[in-house]
Amino acid sequence: MQIRLTVLGSRSGHHTATAPASCDVLVTAPVGTALAAVASGLAATVGGPDTGGTVVLYAGSERLDLQRRVLGEPPLVDGAVLALHGPVPDVLPEDGLGAAQLHVVAGPDAGGVHLLHSGQIRVGRSADADVPLDDPDVSRLHCAVTVIPDGRVAVADLNSTNGTTLDGSPVGAQPVPLPPGALLRVGESTLRLAAAGAPALSVTPDLQGHLSVSARPAAAALPGPLPGADPAAPGPVPDAPGLPGLPDAPGAPGAAPGAGPQGEAPSPGTGPDSGSGTSPGSGSGSGSGRRKGLGAWARKWVRGEEPAEAPPEPVLAAPDPDDPAALLLAAMGPTERLWSRTPGQPAALDVGLGAGSRVSLPAVGALGLAGPRTRLAGAARWVVAQLAALHAPGGLEIVLVSADRARGLADRRRDWGWLGWLPHVRPAHGQDCRLLLAYDRDQAVARTGELTRRLDEGPLGTHWAAADASQVRRAAAVYEGPYTLLVLDGDPGAGPLRDVTGRLASHGPAVGIHVLVLAEAPAATPASPVAETYEAACASSPAFRDCGAVALLSGDVATAVRTFTISGGRPVPAGGTTSADAVSVAWAERFARALAPLRTAEGGSAEPYRPTAAALPATARLLDELGLARATPASLMARWAAATDQGQGVGGLAEIVLGSGRRGPVGTELVHDGPHLLIEGPAGSGRTELLRSVAASLSAAARPDRLGLLLLDGAGGERGDGLRPCTELPHVCAHLVASDPLRMREFAQALGAELKRRSELLEELSFAEWHAQREVSDRMVSPRRPAPGEQRGDLDPQRTGTLRLRAATTRTDPPGPSPLPRLVVLVDDLDALVAPGLGSTGRPAAGSVVRALEAVAREGARLGVHLVAASAHPDRTAETGPARLATLRVELDAPDQPGPGRGMLRFGDGRTVPFQAGRVTGRIPRTATQRPTVVPVEWERMGDPPARRPVRELGNGPTDLALLASALDRASRLVSATPVLFPPAP
Ligand SMILES: Nc1ncnc2c1ncn2[C@@H]1O[C@H](COP(=O)(O)OP(=O)(O)OP(=O)(O)O)[C@@H](O)[C@H]1O
Rounded to an integer, what distance in angstroms lies between the CA atom of residue 391 and that of residue 343? Predict the structure, then answer.
């Protein structure tokens, strides 16, 4: 189990490199480990316990019992913050969420959720304010919100420069009632008094550091802040005589969403499926055509028609119901609003930029966002956070490429550190990294490579880059998710990366990849007109030019935003200027940590199937690919029983697993896809190991009395007994090393005799027909088919202690092996048999062995005998029967890149599947004795391929092959499967 936590050090202020104020750590421990096992490790990351060596850890305000608290169980889950010595400062108490709250619902520093205590709460730009707002248009102390003892709330202006309004009416120095739901505007910020929040969804800890959120119908994505609008919500009372005389505020929970009669702040009736494209989204619900106008315009654009005219100017609107404060609470609850949009819904990937200005990513493709750095960062955080809050990780994957060397790594890490906590950045499709982040060029190449591979496999095919815009739109129009958001921060540098990120922006939508391009540029002002700002953004982030819509931060302090659609390479206004929503780093951290442990419940519809486009793994373990990580006799018996059923009528199947592909195990089956397989590859490419894996997987797939293996090391001599480790498999009935002419001739003769015997037994029938007939006659003698494990009276009564029902006693089969099991002949170094070296001791008899193999190649298909041969010199073996008659082929690459075992399986019909061969002579990985460890998280390295523990070749444990052979042996005894004899008994 692995969980990521943050440890806060002492607050005494002496922070150094070895004793930082806080440290993000990765804790690895077996399930069920007590916190005590890692407590001193956690403390050491922030400089250790101050005195006496006793570690004291808090989560929130609770002091943790180190012995009783278990890693992976709440509160010790992904994203947790633990403090050394004292309570975690500045947390929203979970139990306080039921109280009245002041939400900062829109503006440049949105998302704040402030619990109202009694007395005066000052809102302002100053750090001394109780509700500090990073909003340049807000005065240092701007207004005061007061809760009076009976619970009602009032607001008064504190002589601010720009004034305070409540639902559009000015507020003076005299307090006026602040009813729940009413919108309080200060500067560019909007605040709202909210009653108790929505009820939390139930979550189930998985005890591995995660909490699964129960699935719920998508219809739960209800818009609107609170149900039950009260049309009689009072407006401001200009000359209220004083607090005690205030009229009653409708303060009951669930009241008044702010649909007051003033008209300035209509109820945000925009449902999740309202509008598309960029939209001013007034959403007044009055049926006016304003919203429709822009949505229709954007839809036309999607269909590739030229828009007739620029879309209408926007109007100011109420904040989105999915405002930053609401979504923070949705994450912290979690509430029903969390992950409420699903791919394919019209509102999927709909982004709010501020004051009702919306962009639909599926409609525009890629979105560019430009502005001065600090404001740009806040707006970008909000765009990414809202998508993460509204879409479950199964429906939306988030990838970050922040590799612009124009900015220092520390700055980029600070900007994006929060993102690493989101479950959306975990590689769920086999990507070769720990998180989908790229802070340097190598990581950027890896991330973009993963995405372009998805395009290669998508509807546009491998020549996707040549597709034109209308082809991309058509593919995008029918794409239904899941989606990828690629956040591209600045210029990734290097020509190829620039090129590929631009192409991902323009063509990615065909497979659900939408790029958010962030570009540093001056705010659009009269001094820097739109066209200039746009060009500056394209210069600082080249993919900006490939965006279908751009949002430019504008105004003197860059707290406003203007949205444009790109038409003919130029920005066309898509809306007016609205105030931009943005969130702080602290908000984003809090939000992302709340999401960190959450997962959708298993089987939830939020995790749709996606064909993975991952790269092949650098190494693979055959037992893992076989699904036999822990090979036990019971698991093998179950497998054999299932295979016996599947192979009915053809005399049993011969399933092979070669290794790992991009989508899971790769293999083939000799009866239907074969009959024969040829493996070709240069020296050291892993041919021998692959033959061993073939032997191991065939053994795992069929009982030893149904399938026998013959091993033949064709090179003889010293280098020629590579298949010897396989002789432990109970299925192996002979192993020949081609060095002794006498034994070689005997082997060739025996093989020839076996073919003859089969031919006589079958008469004119094929192997499959003969078995099918026998099954029918067997059933006529004994209608009840024995259950698996019961066949041929095979349970040992002493072992089970029960008397066996001898259902099989009436059967006519003689005990012992079937007279006609399948046989697979595995030949290594076929080329050495075909063209033996002059000094080879087996040379005189090589010809007779090759002739026997030729006979198998010719007649084997009908007789149930298969060949799997490996050749290092295809030129020498090309004309032989084993090569010509092999319908299945494996071509292994040279072993240098990336290592041995990389190859391609080619089927008879021309289909090819790349794979990494499964290792079977490696030593078993030791995970059972894992010691708990605490290591600092290096966010900038999370995009690297995970360090793989080298296979311990020198370990003294058994190899995987030995482990499997021993389990197979025990399983074969339990089912009394007498192995095939070779040569067969006369
Ligand atoms: N799938 C694999 N994964 C990891 N290592 C492998 C794999 N296959 C082979 N190797 C390693 O590569 C080396 C060469 O493997 P192997 O002997 O199977 O190759 P070969 O093609 O038969 O070579 P040769 O030409 O020497 O006969 C060995 O050290 C082996 O352990």
Answer: 8
pLDDT band at 646 (very low <50, low <70, confident <90, very high): confident
Please give the structure tokens belonging to residue 196: 């108790």
**245 compared with 279, residue with greater pLDDT:** 279
Q: What is the pTM of this model?
A: 0.61
How far apart CA 83 and CA 59 sit, in angstroms, is 6
Query: Which tokens in the block code for residue 505?
Result: 């922006």
**Cα 403 from Cα 441, distance rounded (Å):** 6
Assembly ipTM? 0.97
Q: What is the pLDDT, as a whole number, of residue 216?
A: 54
CA 969 to chain centre: 39
How many CB atoms lie under 10 A from the CB of residue 496? Answer: 12
Q: Which of 619, 660, 666, 689 to mutate to test the pocket of ligand 1 (most atoms within 8 A of CB)?
A: 689
3-state percent helix, strand, coil for the chain, nearest multiple of 5? 30, 20, 45
pLDDT for position 50: 54
Contact 282, 356 (CB under 8 A): yes
Q: 961-981, pLDDT tens digit by residue?
A: 998 999 999 999 888 777 777
Q: Convert the pLDDT of each residue in 497-517 to its tens digit.
A: 999 999 999 999 999 999 999
Pair 650, 772: CB distance under 8 Å: yes
Atom 2 in ligand 1: which residue has the minimum CA distance? 901
User: For residue range 399-409, what is the model confidence (pLDDT) as tens digits?
Assistant: 999 999 999 99
922 Cα–ligand 1 center, Å: 11
71 CA to centre of own chain:
23
Q: Which residue has the higher pLDDT, 817 or 775?
A: 775
pLDDT value for 897: 66
Phi, psi of 839 (to 5 degrees): -90, 5
Of the candidates 477, 479, 469, the one whose C-alpha atom is nearest the C-alpha of residue 299 is: 477
Closest CA to 48 of 59, 40, 56: 40
| Distance between Cα 685 and ligand 1 center (Å) | 6
C-alpha torsion 509→512→513→514, nearest 10: 70
901 and 659 Cβ atoms separated by less than 8 Å: yes
